[in-house]
User: Fold these one by one.
Assistant:
Number 1:
Amino acid sequence: MRILVIEDEPKTAAFLQKGLTENGFIVNLAHNGQDGVHLATTIHHDLIILDVTLPKLDGWSVLTEIRQHNKKIPVLFLSARDEIQARVKGLSLGADDYLIKPFSFLELLARIHSLLRRSQAHVQEPPILRIADLEIDVHKHKATRNSQRLDLTPKEFALLSLLARHQGQLLSRTLIAEQVWDMNFDSDTNVVDVAVRRLRSKLDDPFAKKLIHTIRGVGYVLEDR
Ligand code: CA
């Protein structure tokens, strides 16, 4: 995850760079608005932290230019101005969140993670997953093969979606148990085998082409072979 920090105060910039790097982010720094716009529009970042008062180009103008170029990247505003107007202005220009200085690093980190989760959810969850003639509508909880609706229970649908999101990847029974049942089935991954067997009876048995493949002793993979 790459974060762009646009901040002119050396101390705050250094503090942000150190803290974010320690938390596993790659950090690019810009010390004025112009450099900030340049970096934001030439390098891919996952999130931008933007100070309001900046030399050369202020935070409002930077945000406006960034939004013309990229409507989706999460932007977190930083400001010393504890004013409702500043906050409203930032949000109306398209900032996603707002933090007033001085702020705690833990709070900043929590906001960053929440913004990234929101934006990643859009990226990683295309509404329709397709493998061969299988189509899964994640939002409508509907799966079809060859345009025939599959009558799945909620758990079967969750299992199928998990396999489909990782198509071509081997998923262990343990991982499947954790993800689908939100539990740890250390000793009894038999639950997974039973669920997969039921899913297969609906997904694969009526069709010539089989999509779920067993990797003996390890787990399962959904793949168009
Ligand atoms: Ca500043």
Number 2:
Amino acid sequence: MTQRLTTSAGCPIADDNNSISAGRRGPLTFDNFQLFEKLAHFNRERIPERVVHARGTGAYGSFTLSRSLSEYTRADFLQHLGDETEVFVRFSTVGGGQDSSDYARDPRGFAVKFYTREGNFDVVGNNTPVFFLNDPQKFPDFVHSQKKNPRTNLPDAARMYEFWANHPQSLHQMTILMSDRGIPLSYRHMNGYSSHTLGFWNEQGERYWVKFHFKTDQGIRTVTNDEAQSLPAHGAQQDLVEAIDFGEFPSWTVKVQILSEEQARSFPVNPFDLTKVWPHKLAPLIEIGKLTLNRNVDNYFAETEQATFAPSNLVPGISASPDKMLQARLLAYQDAHRYRVGVNHNQLAVNAPRCPVNHYQSDGSSTGIQNGEVNYYPNDQRDLPRPDPSVQAPPLPLLGDAWVGTFSQDDEDYFSQAGELFRLMNPEQQGQLFDNIGGGLAQATPSAQERMLDFLNRADPNYAQGVLQAMRQHVPAANTA
Ligand code: NDP
């Protein structure tokens, strides 16, 4: 039977093509409430675009555990071999708006929501194991410098390099971004990383530090700047949607690196510095399972656009770490969602946990589910929700005699790991790196060029030399002294 068209209040609609007017050629009348509802709703179809990671695509799938992690964590979904957990994954570029190209030279967001039996656990990661910064104070400045010039509204390499030249901590991530891996062929052909260090804690209350790695089973495939120019703007989105529609389900092998608290204390790099990796030979990768995407969304806006990932979505057995960037994201992500989607965003189907939700929060815009008359705690009703002390994380140890204050990280070594990555690359990859940096750096001021070349030289003299030559090819007259 044909379904009847209705208003959003469910009332049947007789005519959805013609407005009510005073006669055939007369003006429209004030009783056009169906027209008004349609236009008013249309005016409100857009919600604020994400300031970063605006252009994205998402899909559902599952995570299957192949190794129990019970010795490290009590996290319910990491206990039993073969355990399957539903996931929603959203991939994105970072800097561009909703309709920008999928083939920008830009990091890719790789956000995974695990719908576990004890609540949602979100890994809000990237396709890079590190980030440009290790202090959140600098985040808005960084993003401003990488986005379009506010006067011309055009991309502006000089501003990007000016920021990088003032921040040696960005060198490692900049090297990844400017390498051959800087433009993935598709979202299926790239790795994902938690990037942050997270905490694990087990039934005995012992704490470990952990990093998640999602290694693509499709192989790494990338494109050059020139190839990217000829690809359709929405190509990566189309690739993912079609692969899943055709039953070619993309998968990633999930691995972790784990350090005990004791190992972390004597680790040669600061394990909470987001600009650094944990070298594999010091913290080997442990395979723990498979992530597979097998179902497209039914509605892009309802699901992908309104998906709200948050690093503060942590389940018992998994905690945050003292990583300063992570600490700020614990606040900033939920705050962005409250502004962009609304205070009750976790009630939307894509964000709603697959387990019971019991709390005493009340009201707010678009409340869909509300508990009964007792909206306060403690209360005297024994059958109403109460905290469970058994899910209390162990206390976080501070290093030595801790003082509250601002702590400069200027004395960190920001060059060695960038140099190690450079030396991993073959000559062809190094050539692409030189060219990609040379083209942008040639547009920067002489002072920014000089500081960047000094950073590159400290990573590896051949790195600086190669970039210098590439810059001269791009702008022969550039001041590269
Ligand atoms: P390893 O030789 O054990 O690992 C090197 C890693 O580098 C591999 O995971 C490889 O990924 C990855 N890689 C290779 N080329 C690139 C590229 N252009 N951009 C990004 N990643 C790339 O070395 P270490 O663990 O000692 O690390 C050395 C350097 O490798 C680091 O300084 C870092 O820049 C980079 N790296 C390290 C990672 C880590 O967690 N230790 C993770 C990713 C990069 P794949 O296996 O997919 O080819």
